[in-house]
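Our consortium's second objective concerns turning raw sequence data into structural hypotheses that experimental partners can test. To show how far this objective has progressed, the report includes one record in full. It was chosen at random from the queue rather than selected for favorable results. The single chain below, 153 residues long, was entered without modification.
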Amino acid sequence: MTVTKEIRLNPAELAERVRQLTDRPAEWISRVRLDAEGRWYEQIHSGDSYEIWLISWLPGHETGFHDHGGACGAFGLAWGDLDEVRPDGSVRAVSPGAVRSFGPQYIHDVRNTSSSSVAVSVHAYSPPLSEMTRYKMTGEGLVSLGTESEADW
């Protein structure tokens, strides 16, 4: 019996893949769509060790607080501006060319707080996402709203 070892990319490796794609929008720009109902997203790479998604954000779109299960991740902005909000209330602006990376169990809320600008981002996860837990911020802190599986996306 052959045992295969799962290959995982670390946050720095994911950030590099995201950076490569955000620097070359000609490779994916024709796939981007806008959706007034919510964030539009499309998986543009899926492999055993990682996956990559494109996401478009109209003004007011946000993810809500969520984690990425046991996956590491990275996201970068091709254009527009986003804010990353952490459970402690800190807010970090993410501008074009910026890439954020993180380890497993990382919780955040990503938002397009612009009143007039579209944003497009590239996201990578390793291993590929199999579940995400959604959270609600209350006066007592974060409360889990439940876990979604990849079948829900």
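The partners drew two points from this record. The helical segments are 11-22. The radius of gyration is 15 Å. Both points have been shared with the crystallography group to help prioritize constructs.
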